[in-house]
Specification:
The chain is an all-alpha fold and about 600 residues long. Helices cover about 70% and strands about 0% of the residues.
């Protein structure tokens, strides 16, 4: 008995020694490199790759903000003059105020839309709850850039709906080219994110507190305001910080709406002074980029601080009761009308209007659009090589990038959650760090990193599809990691231990057992990262070239040229590609689950 117990007790989970297999067969021998097991080298490779990806845009940005000349010029002197010039000469104070107003209003509008709808769908008796729950989430698959085009087409000063409303009322009661107009459009695009967080928390919470309130005589409205809403503080805080971070960095809506009205925010300030400027001041550009980076990192830190005592809001414990939906009476019809109005007028009408615009020469209520039906917009897209190449490039970037990001995310999750690696906590922090890095900062930072990279690496990468894949992949990495982490947490560690006792090392246990169990989660991460990277565009503004344009940057160029028909056609094609991919992936996953 002692001969059997000794090897097992001498081999902790992180040990490189392998015990003999039961039955007398010797354990397999794995090649050791420089005296260390192969899993150790894999762990270090993962954290080094993550560190390089995260630090590549950050370090050059901070360094450039302190230099008196461009990063690639020799003899630079370190100083804080760029920050002084930023607030005294560049008019950045007004930009900061506009950004704060835009982010604040966007967050307010997002919460006003998402929280009541999440409560109504999950916790009340509302007709068609399942259909409404699905409808609330599908705008996530449409980029804010496309949604902005659609809103201008329908609700802009010369939009189809605006002209009809002006004929009836004599004026248009809204101004899309304003900070509130920008914020409302962005809120419609971001509401599905906040809705998902709040709805998920409501579905998982225990309804015993609501039952206790009912026993005490509380009515539905009192239960909503005094029991349900206070329990939503963690998802509200998390989604609010996320929405503020996205609002600070978004480029599409502020560029489309703010440029005609001369309203600048952080992102458009960087765009104008960097890409559109004939002689850009790289010092001011670096200082502004560093400031935005500090703001987003600070927001994430505030989020962690506010949710530090999240245990106060735990309601899911043993013997949880089944949720009982509240009956709001006639208010349920107001809830139903509000959700339908958001989905139809906020997302469906602008998208359908944009799609219909792609089949017309002129889209105006002054003339029947049916008289100008044409396929010329699509013919132009498929005639010019630059346009078709942007579609192909977008699919390549999303396809290749989603595979690479999902693989890296899976390895990062395994190292962070399923290993004894001494730096496993740092691995998780690095994988999630890009969520605090705005897309436009990623583009600017990688642009400088490639310019400063040794061995001509930057020369090879700059302007190529690989540069865009790196930028988009860095942005999508937290999503891939976040979608995989819950799945690995649900798999018991006794499976790993059984494999280790049988002689398998860490890599063998992963490939033979965990990889198969994680296949559905990996497929879900592929879908999520593909859609995320297909919608992305802001890093490509600085990383792309004439040979590596994608759909997003091509649409921006065509919009500036006034070619709205081609913009509508490209947007429709992007929506079709997304819908086809998500639908096909859903069928494949459904078939796989049925086979299982």
């Amino acid at each position: 008995m002692s001969a059997i117990k000794t090897p097992a007790s001498a081999s902790p989970p992180g040990s490189d020694d392998r015990p003999p297999r039961t039955g007398g067969h010797p354990a397999p021998r794995y090649r050791r490199v420089l005296g260390r097991g192969r899993e150790v080298w894999l762990h270090y490779a993962v954290i080094i790759i993550l560190a390089l990806l995260v630090l590549a845009p950050v370090v050059p940005t901070l360094y450039q903000s302190l230099l008196d000349r461009p990063l690639y010029e020799a003899g630079g002197i370190l100083s804080l003059d760029n920050y002084v010039k930023l607030f005294t000469e560049a008019g950045f104070g007004k930009v900061a105020l506009n950004t704060a107003l835009f982010a604040g209003l966007t967050t307010l509008f997002t919460l006003i839309i998402a929280i009541p709808m999440a409560v109504a769908v999950v916790r009340t008796k509302i007709p068609g709850g399942r259909l409404l729950a699905a409808a609330m989430q599908w705008p996530f698959f449409i980029s804010s850039l496309i949604l902005g085009f659609g809103w201008i087409t329908m609700y802009g000063p010369a939009g189809f709906v605006s002209v009809k409303v002006a004929d009836v009322l004599g004026t248009v009661p809204w101004n899309l080219y304003s900070i509130p107009g920008m914020a409302l459009t962005e809120a419609v695009a971001l509401a599905p994110i906040a809705y998902t967080f709040c709805a998920g928390a409501l579905r998982q919470s225990d309804a015993s507190l609501e039952s206790a309130a009912q026993v005490c005589g509380a009515g539905p409205l009192r239960i909503l305001f005094q029991v349900i809403l206070p329990m939503l503080r963690p998802p509200i805080v998390y989604s609010s910080i996320l929405v503020v971070s996205i609002s600070v960095e978004t480029l599409s809506v502020p560029l489309l709406y703010g440029q005609p009205a001369n309203i600048q925010v952080f992102s458009t300030f960087l765009y104008r002074n960097g890409l559109q400027s004939i002689n850009p001041d790289y010092g001011i550009l670096g200082a502004a980029s560093a400031l935005i980076l500090f703001v987003t990192v600070g927001l994430v830190a505030v989020q962690a601080k506010l949710l530090k005592d999240a245990q106060r809001f735990v309601s899911v414990r043993g013997k949880a009761t089944r949720p009982r939906r509240l009956d709001l009476g006639w208010l349920k019809w107001i809830s139903l009308i509000s959700i339908v109005f958001y989905v139809v007028m906020g997302a469906l009408v602008p998208i359908l209007g944009l799609m219909f615009r792609s089949f017309t020469l002129i889209f105006t209520p002054l003339q029947s659009p049916l008289k100008t039906l044409t396929m010329a917009n699509y013919e132009r897209i498929f005639t010019y090589t630059a346009y078709t190449d942007s579609i192909i490039n977008s699919v390549i970037v999303a396809g290749v990038g989603s595979v690479l990001v999902s693989v890296l995310g899976l390895l990062a999750v395994m190292v962070a959650r399923r290993s004894t690696f001494r730096f496993r906590r740092a691995t998780e922090y690095l994988a999630l760090a890009p969520q605090a890095m705005p897309g436009i900062i990623v583009g600017i930072g990688l642009f400088w990193a490639f310019a400063y990279a040794p061995f001509n690496i930057g020369t090879v990468l700059q302007g190529s599809l690989w540069a865009i894949i790196i930028g988009f992949g860095l942005r999508a990495l937290p999503s891939g990691f976040g979608s995989l982490a819950p799945s690995i947490m649900q798999i018991g560690q006794e499976l790993d231990n059984a494999a280790r006792v049988s002689g398998a090392d860490w890599i063998k246990a992963f490939t033979m057992i965990l990889a198969k169990l994680l296949t559905p989660a990996f497929a879900g991460a592929l879908i999520l990262t593909f859609v995320t990277m297909l919608k992305e565009y802001s890093p490509a503004v600085f990383l792309g070239s004439a040979d590596s344009k994608i759909i997003g940057t091509t649409m921006l160029e065509l919009w500036v040229q006034g070619n709205t028909g081609s913009v509508a056609a490209l947007a429709t094609l992007q929506i079709a590609i997304t819908a086809a991919f998500v639908g096909l992936a859903g069928l494949l996953l459904k078939g796989r689950n049925n086979d299982a």
